[in-house]
Amino acid sequence: MDKRFNYIYIQSKFGEDIIKKTKFFKKLNYKNEFKFLNISSKSNLNINTIALKILFYIGSIKLIPFCDTYRHITININPLTWIKFTFGNILLISFKIVVFKKFFLNLLLNFHNNILTKKYKFKNIVPKDAKKIIIFTGLYSHKTYNLIKIAKLKGIKTILVVDNWDNISSKMPIIEHPDKIVFWGNEMKQVWNNANYLLRNNKTKVHVIGSYRHSMIVDELSMRKKILKIDKKRFFSKIIKNYSSNKTALCISFFDSIRERNPKKILNQLDKIIENKFKNKIFIIYREHPLKKEKKINLGPYKNIFYDPAFHKKNKDINEFVFSKTIFFSDGVISQVSTVLLEIDLFNKRKIILDYGSPQKLFARMKTSQFLKYYFKKNKNSICSRETELEDKFTLFVEKILKKKPYFSQDNNYIFKKINFNDYLKKFRLTLKN
User: Is the pTM of this model over 0.90?
Assistant: First the structure.
């Protein structure tokens, strides 16, 4: 009898690098059970019709409450957005008529699926010895839809592992449902239970088991209970020449968002605050979002801001995304909204959450995103909502660090289950078998 395998598909190169670096599937008995799905050309899955775009758009409109923030800050500035937003809401109202909804959905899906099956010989995409396909994705896209649909047409089970905090609630809706879906915590499950407005998802089996990357951080922290001063000095001295000789200086990291288009505005403000109030007492470590495609910012003009030591060479150190030495050694962290906030809390670091950026219209929607409601409620004292508040917030933030006041991060167990890596592996194996 021919052996069959669980095939792994990872949508992004960045995600694939992390999975391979952590040796996640090797620890799951990789050589005997798993293979990486080798798609010779990603264009094989890159079929995105107007029908599928409409379905994604309707679903994303449903995820954006028609609130004052979004209406005034975003829509009135851009008339095209107003037209698209109104059109989407008209379609949503139409969807309440069950007969129309069923007809319209089937029409769009049949249109896309017919093109999908005719345009490519998709039989070559999924190997004959495939038992299951495990899809790791940070963003459910048309490619994810196409792969799940192709697998279903071939009678192969699919497992979708959501590998991004906000994917399930603030980006695209999941239209073609997998056989199983793996979530970090009950927050994702709650959003999933409410996401029946396009197609019913009750046939998909839901597994809440945590995050494999966060579980590895839990393990590493259990072994590194104390920060050694010599290790900290060695780390920051890579980019700050006088750090070793300055015994009292603090290193505070600043992480920007992939939405941020003009980080210099925040960097200018931070540099000015430090120059006027905390000269030679604080150094800012700046890290651009790792998936940004813009040219690296020149930090030469800044007196108190330095590049991240983890990336002081040209190539990104992928280990930094498994266990961040930058966060570990930092005395505090400033961050715009991204998944790194959960890592900051795992490291139990005092933080400032910048709930603004440039252009503001890209950040205005964040206030109403479902995935942030719980987190913002638990961390309201850490939020800085506008740039005029930053100096006062930063001053108080530094004073608390200097006084070494005890700090305990909020419990994020509702967002992701805090378990060690071995427990995660056991739960993942059960998910595959059940």
Answer: no
